[in-house]
Design a protein that fits this description.
Chain lengths: 152, 211
């Protein structure tokens, strides 16, 4: 009786070990080949996300940067936002630089929480312009629109 | 164990009735390419028609459309995608959420990872002095990814209040130095770095300002 129980226990331990081994091998392969990791995570650190309710209460000047397509910007955008991809890329960047002044925070937004263009654009602005105070608007355009619709 | 690993990494991707040839595309753009097309192909392996209810791209830079809305059992179909690349460099990852009326698997996420070559990198692209700062020289590093394809032609600065120089370094590398003549008042300029890419002229801007 005891031997049977011991055998069952040992078999269960062996099977659990096998399952763990398979999971470990899969995890190692995923880590080596970086399966499923977002592109920007390999290239740069995450730019901090900030909620609109926080942004609108900042005392420091804020420059909103629209990282959606030029067509989406033309349809509608957050008031005061400048397009990052309006016209030729460099012209849009020139307008952005002209509007920026020391102490101004840049807040970049894209279409939705699923869009990583804001992260990559914010990283590019931080790297190319050397501006440290760059943020990504949490939830992007869709969250901002939702916030406006919820207003009493 | 071998079977388990085979199951783990097997392709194509089977999600409910729709069997996708692949849900994760790795793409490479040509230098200067404005847009890119991609196709996600699938087959309805179920015994009922499947209707595509919605395609929700992660970014307005994507347009996506199915070849048709309803696919009969055994029928093949595809989602055609057009991806705008203008203004992007490096690696971009975009997704499309596909919603169907398939009872087993209503949602599928399609992913595209695109590598967009950066022919000329300028770091930083913006040099600035605060009003009242000493008018010291500042520099940006310019790196050409493929010196055989990209030839640096000349640097133009139309604002005489900024003295700019382009100094060649190692192959494919340059140092741009800029010195304002006066920092007592606000001023700004866009320096034009003219390059020839595969025989065609292109301009990169470097911004300088006293603010």
């Amino acid at each position: 009786m005891m031997d049977t129980r011991k055998a069952i226990f040992l078999r269960a331990v062996r099977q659990a070990g096998l399952i763990l081994l398979i999971a470990l091998i899969a995890a190692v392969i995923a880590a080596v080949f970086r399966l499923g990791r977002p592109g920007w995570s390999r290239a740069q650190a995450m730019i901090p996300e900030v909620d609109w309710t926080v942004v609108r209460n900042w005392r420091d000047p804020v420059l909103l940067v629209d990282a959606r397509s030029a067509a989406a910007y033309a349809r509608d955008h957050i008031p005061g936002a400048l397009p990052l991809f309006g016209g030729a890329g460099d012209e849009a960047m020139a307008a952005l630089v002209a509007a920026w002044h020391p102490g101004t925070r840049l807040v970049v937004y894209c279409d939705s929480p699923r869009c990583d263009a804001a992260q990559s654009a914010a990283g590019r602005l931080r790297r190319e312009l050397g501006v440290e105070e760059v943020f990504v608007l949490k939830g992007g355009w869709s969250a901002w629109v939702d916030g406006q619709n919820r207003k009493p | 164990m071998v079977c388990a690993l085979a199951l783990l990494f097997c392709r194509p991707v089977i999600a409910g009735a729709l069997q996708w040839k692949g849900t994760d595309l790795q793409l490479a753009a040509r230098p200067g390419q404005d847009s890119m097309s991609a196709v996600f192909a699938f087959r309805n392996t179920g015994d009922k028609p499947v209707r595509i209810l919605a395609l929700d791209p992660s970014c307005s830079c994507i347009s996506a459309a199915p070849d048709k809305a309803v696919h009969a059992p055994g029928e093949s179909g595809e989602i055609r995608v057009e991806l705008a690349l203008t203004g992007y460099v490096g690696r971009m990852r975009r997704t499309i959420a596909v919603t169907t009326d398939d009872a087993e698997e209503k949602f599928t996420e399609l992913t595209m990872t695109v590598d967009i070559p950066e022919l000329v990198s300028i770091t930083p692209r913006f040099l600035f002095w605060r009003v009242g700062d000493p008018p010291q020289e500042k520099a940006a590093e310019i790196a050409i990814s493929d010196p055989k394809t990209v030839i640096v032609d000349k640097l133009e600065c139309l604002n005489p209040h900024f003295q700019a120089q382009l100094l060649p370094g190692k192959t494919g590398q340059f140092r741009l130095t800029v010195k304002p003549t006066d920092t007592r008042q606000q001023d700004e300029a866009s320096l034009r770095l003219n390059v020839i890419v595969g025989g065609r002229p292109q301009t990169y801007l470097v911004y300088v300002a006293v603010k």
